[in-house]
Amino acid sequence: MALDPSRTVAELKELRKLTGDDDGAQRVAWTETWEQARAWLREKVADTGAEHEIDAAGNQWFTLRGASERELLIGGHMDSVPNGGWLDGCLNVMAGVETLRRIASEGTPPLTVRLVDWADEEGARFGRSLFGSSAAGGSMADQDEIRQRTDAAGIRWPDALAEHGVDLDRALEAHSQLANAAAYLELHIEQGPVLESMDLPLGVVLGTFGVERHQITWRGQAAHSGSTPMAQRRDALAGAAKLALEIRPIAAEVGEGAVCTSGGVVCKPGIVTSVVETAEQLLDQRHLDAAKLQRMLDLAKEASERFAREENVEVSWEKLWSINPILFDDHLIDLADESIREVCGASHRLPSGPLHDAAEVARAGVPTVMLFVQSLRGLSHTKVEDTKEEHIELSVQALDRLASKALAAFS
Ligand SMILES: [Zn+2]
Fold first, then answer.
1. What is the bridge-based pairing of β-strands 202-208 and 368-373?
2. What is the pLDDT of residues 348-358, one digit of tens each?
3. Distance of CA 26 from the midpoint of ligand 1 (Å)
4. Are 76 and 184 in contact (CB under 8 A)?
5. Which of 27, 92, 176, 396 has an alpha carbon 20 to 30 Å from 119's alpha carbon atom?
6. What predicted TM-score, i.e. pTM, was given to this entire model?
7. To 5 degrees, how large is the angle CA 64–CA 68–CA 72?
8. Exposure pattern of 275-298 as b/e (b: 16+ CB <10 Å)?
């Protein structure tokens, strides 16, 4: 069967009709609609002759036996956020199905080829993403915390898992699925504006950003707005305000895609008649290079101490969360670049801001790469998420070529 990228577009529309409504996609993991989407996927893959299996973490696998036990993996996720877009996650899976069909039609592949539909990438119902891939990758270290989580209706996560055949105590057994993995490929919509701004359909992802997330607390003195002269104020908000602007030159100095965001400041007492006594500021810094990420954090800390002196306030930092950058495989990046150039003439290398299942697989030591296809207006996690159909078709072709190149390179 020849590759037919237009079939992928048609199938994605079919899936949208089956599992979406006027508000968008409703394939939230561990729900009936999600199960419906996964059952629909099984019907779609049936004609390839691939073996079907659901692992201990709920990931759905389709295996096409090859000449070797070594495996080429292609992955995506059928789950969506509530009121989500029609492409996030499922484009990857359906492009993988089309690639699997093409490979199956050509006889026994040199490597075993497996398509994986990761369980609960989005974490929409219980607030923790990458459930299935982190179990398979082996990084899931927060099972005690997962055990305590409940959804908005108060249903415990382990109970919801059990309803869908997953025993949380055994979820990490999914790790054995990666035992023979030679390479992992994932296509995804960009979910950002970079490729559209460059007028390019596709790009190669270099890795996922490292993240430093901190709460910065500024402490001054509450004082009357009318009776306190300007020179005698200890205004906690002044420090936060200076830092909120200073992160721009810091990101510019560090460069190479550095991004920093001061996503919120909560002021107390927070009334119009008082100078701000405490300002709790949120800061998120991201970079693909661990040393540059550290440099960005150091510069922000130094600046905060300078502003604290200038404003006669105190400042303290508390880490909320951090993760190291996860870099994709150089060889696969080159192959992905070649595939994109062959299909659409030009390519671009870019980092990923969001984490993806691919990051968990890469962390587990499997050579990994991702392809991004342009997102219109950079929007995702909304029903208006969209990509031009011609770009979707190009993305299927690029994934298919990359799969061929990886099969040749790793066998
Ligand atoms: Zn996704």
1. antiparallel
2. 999 998 889 99
3. 14
4. no
5. 396
6. 0.89
7. 55
8. bbbbbbbbbbbbbbbeebbebbbe
